[in-house]
Amino acid sequence: MAIPLPHRLHSDHPQPAVAATPPTAFLSQDELKCVAAHRAVELVESGMVLGMGTGSTAAHALDRIGELLRCDVLSILTSEWATGRVAAAGIPLVDLNTHPIVDLSIDIADEVDPALYLVKGRGGSLLREKMVEGASHRFVVIVDEYKIVSRLGASGLTVPVEVIPFGWVLSLRRL
Ligand SMILES: O=C(CO)[C@H](O)[C@H](O)COP(=O)(O)O
């Protein structure tokens, strides 16, 4: 999901074709992550089983879900990073074994190209994220403007590859 510049949200006025000032002049990346996360949380409804990605944007989403819904949703985390945050927000935690069908998963990209191909997993939870998102009726990816690139890899950051103990030698040979 590409999120428009915050100053374009909810505006009744025609916008210029090109933003006169880059988004950094308005909001930091963390502030944009927060705006994008709040938009994604608008899709969350009472009673849902939610899959939650890992990272700083997901933390904003969890905080928002806690403010709005608390114990009205069940959450599956894709890593242990936010266990304390979820508890503080009052959101009950479940797992894929007890809840193998997930209503909505919210996750975050690391890079997105103009064709909407994306890289994700730099937070180190790729396998669990794929499992939870594969079990979801709906999968929403949050993207702030800093993640948009002309081609994948253009940010210069690494592309994550997750290797699990089962068959790791084969994985190593193929890298
Ligand atoms: O893929 C991920 C975890 O495996 C993260 O969702 C991704 O790295 C984005 O993180 P952040 O919200 O901190 O920018």
TrEMBL record:
Its EC number is 5.3.1.6. It catalyses: aldehydo-D-ribose 5-phosphate = D-ribulose 5-phosphate. One of its GO terms (biological process) is pentose-phosphate shunt, non-oxidative branch. Pathway: Carbohydrate degradation; pentose phosphate pathway; D-ribose 5-phosphate from D-ribulose 5-phosphate (non-oxidative stage): step 1/1. It comes from the Eukaryota. GO terms for molecular function: ribose-5-phosphate isomerase activity. Pfam families: Rib_5-P_isom_A. The keyword Nucleotide-binding does not apply. The keyword Isomerase applies. Keywords: Isomerase. NCBIfam families: rpiA. Belongs to the ribose 5-phosphate isomerase family. This is ribose-5-phosphate isomerase. It comes from Canna indica.
